[in-house]
Amino acid sequence: MKEQLLAIRERAAQELSSLSSLQTLEEFRIRFLGKKGELTAVLRGMGGLSAEERPVIGALANEVRTFLEGAMEEKKAVLLAAERDAKLANEVVDVTMAGRKPQLGKLHPLTQVLNEVKDIFLGMGFSIAEGPDVELDYYNFEALNIPKNHPARDTQDTFYVNDNVVLRTQTSPMQVRTMEKQKPPIRIIAPGMVYRSDAVDATHSPVFHQIEGLVVDKGVTMGDLKGTLETFIRQLYGEDVAVRFRPHHFPFTEPSAEVDASCFACGGKGCRICKGEGWIEILGAGMVHPKVLSRCGIDPEVYSGFAFGVGLERIVMRRMGISDIRLFYDNDMRFLSQF
Ligand code: DAH
Q1: What is the CATH number of the domain that holds 154?
Q2: Which of 53, 142, 187, 309 could form a disulfide with 49 if both were Cys (CB 3.0 to 4.6 A apart)?
Q3: What is the CA(48)–ligand 1 centre distance, in A?
Q4: Whole-model pTM?
């Protein structure tokens, strides 16, 4: 039995030194010291020993157990340290490695040009007004001289929320809202989204942007309208651009005009971008209708004004040579990063 114990001690010591994980260490413990372990089995056999042998073997068995327990403690400490070192080595950060450059975003082309337009008008003493996208029928149509059943309503396929509430089809309601709140002199632009029940194609979107302009004061004339809009168009497209005013009709201005710029691509000779015309339509404008003024409590005998409405997408497309309006809303980085 003594040999048996010594053999166990030797084999255990050998095995222990070759263990490489906490998991195998636990298996080792069970195999030698567990209820069915080798050392335990030997101790169980002590019942058959003589009275002289029993204390000697008992003492030896205890010594072997103490030895194994101590050796296992030491091994466990070694394994824990190794595990921690491995973990640290794994998580090491090389602070000398080159960093990954964060991708910088930039402003959407519509925002870029809108900012330019704002700057141009701020420079001429305008301020910027904002109003609701969900608008009363009264402001979007009625107060602008477009009563129910007026044919002008047909050209603006409207999203109705109910009989009295619409998604604004134009930024022109901001003329009325401004004049109700503010007495002349008035000089504002009102950029924002507008909504029309249009089918989507290369030049139509049910949501797009307009920039409204309004000037009201004593003695404002068509000459002021022409001067202001020519200045705007030249600052936007360049000093060499020719500007043309064509008579037109809008219910809320009288007289009304559509304003064209000579094609920036061909200089007026006619090309693909201006569809051979030499001119590109930029905006609608006119002298504020006396009825619109008086409905807002401004005396048309004392004051006069002009107004204009610019389609933002259209001027950005023309200026940047973009042929499909849908590209603005696709959020495709390959497109957006070009501007
Ligand atoms: N609101 C018009 C439209 O959406 C554009 C417009 C024309 C605005 C003439 C004006 C204006 O202020 O005077 O078609």
Answers
A1: 3.30.930.10
A2: 53
A3: 114
A4: 0.71
